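Thread: "does anyone have the structure for this chain?"

Original post by V.I.:
We have the sequence but no experimental structure in hand. Need at least a predicted one for the grant figures.
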Amino acid sequence: MLTLVGAAAAALAGIGGWLAFGAQQGSPPAQAVARPGAPAPAITLPLLAGGTASLAADRGKVVLVNFWATWCEPCKSEMPALQQLRNELRAQAFALYSIDLQEDADAIQAFQRQFGLDLYVLLDGEGDVTRAYGVRGLPATFLIDRSGVVKVQRLGPLLPGGPETTWSEPWLAEQVRGLLTSS
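Reply from O.Q.:
Generated one for you, tokens below.
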């Protein structure tokens, strides 16, 4: 019996990045985390380039929030599509909050250079915003409408496929565009 418990503990320890953040940090009460149909939890974080970003200041815009880290393999594969979406919608009432979890500026800047990114990077050094959104693993993506309500959320990587595949990169881009064209 003890061997089975030890083996189970070792297997859980090997899961790594997906559960590591939540297990180390504890979790907020269920009613405090982001969920579709509810107002988005506040975001006020420092920017990698200097200054501060605030979700309240971007009220009236469609905001795509993506939680990530440089060591996260699925995050790496999503970044080019997020960058492309941001570039395509730059002139519209759209903001992409690329929230890095607990990494230093040098690691993030090296990552951006490696992948040719110039995303608006917010720094969640203490993990408070990540916890407020109920993120237990990376990546995680939330789409917030112009009135500040979470419309959809994905806890996990975007999926392969076309616009007909829920949570694929093209599907997500269509969701963003749909919110931009509605009132």
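V.I.: this helps a lot. The chain has a mean pLDDT of 86.
O.Q.: and The longest strand covers residues 94-101.
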